[in-house]
Amino acid sequence: MNGKFEFKADIAVDDAGVISGIAWPFGTPDRVGDEIAPGAFKSAKAPLPLLFAHDPSQPLGAWDQLEETAKGLQVKGRLLVDDVARAKEVRALVKSGAVTGLSIGFITKSARARRGGGRVIKALDLVEVSLVTVPAHPGARVTSAKSATALIALADAINRASAALQPKASK
Asked: Of residues 113 and 147, which shows the higher confidence score?
C-alpha cells in the first residue's frame, strides 16, 4: 500500500446528460506501465463524483452505476446539464469529440512490480472518475493526469470530505 492518490476510459453521452463508458480496461497497461487487475475494483461503490480533469472545483454530476466486467470497469452516470452550466458545456465538448476520455482517481491499496516497468495494481480505493481531454491508455483511451497541483487540491478535498464524515466525539 503506497497511499498515493493517482489518476488513471470510451464514452458516450446523450442530450439528457446520461453518460457511460469504460473507465479502466483490463489486459493492457497505461502509458506509464501500470495495469489494474480484475477484482481491484471490488470495493468501489456508487455514487462517485463525476469531475472534469480531476478538478474538485468542477463537479459535473455523479456516476451512479459501477460494474466490473470482463472488459474492465464500466461506468454510467449523469451530467447535471440542467443544473450546472459547466456540465452542459462539457456535454457539448464530449459530443463534438473534443473531450474523449475518462480517467480514474484512486488510492492504491495493493500492487506489485510489473515485468517491463510499472505496476500491477491488485486492490484500490476508487475516489472519482473524470472526463478528460487527452487519452493516455492506448487501447481504451484512458487518461493519466499526475499533476501535483491537481493532486494536492483533490487530496485536500478528499481529506476534508473524509473528516466531515467521521463521527463527532461526544463530550
From this structure: 113
Judged on CB neighbours under 10 Å (0-12, 13-18, 19+), 160 is: exposed
Q: How many CA atoms lie within 13 A of 30 on its CB side?
A: 29
CA-CA distance, 9 to 21, in Å (whole number)? 7
Domains of the chain: 5-165 (3.20.16)
Helix H or strand E segment including 148: helix 148-165
For 27-67, what is each residue's pLDDT tens digit?
Answer: 988 878 899 999 999 999 999 999 998 899 999 999 999 99
Distance from C-alpha of 110 to C-alpha of 40, rounded to nearest angstrom = 9
Query: At 32, which amino acid appears?
Result: V
> What is the distance between the alpha carbons of residues 93 and 56, in angstroms, rounded to a whole number?
19
pTM to 2 decimal places: 0.75
Mean pLDDT of 113-126: 93
Alpha-carbon gap, residue 139 to 144, rounded angstroms = 13
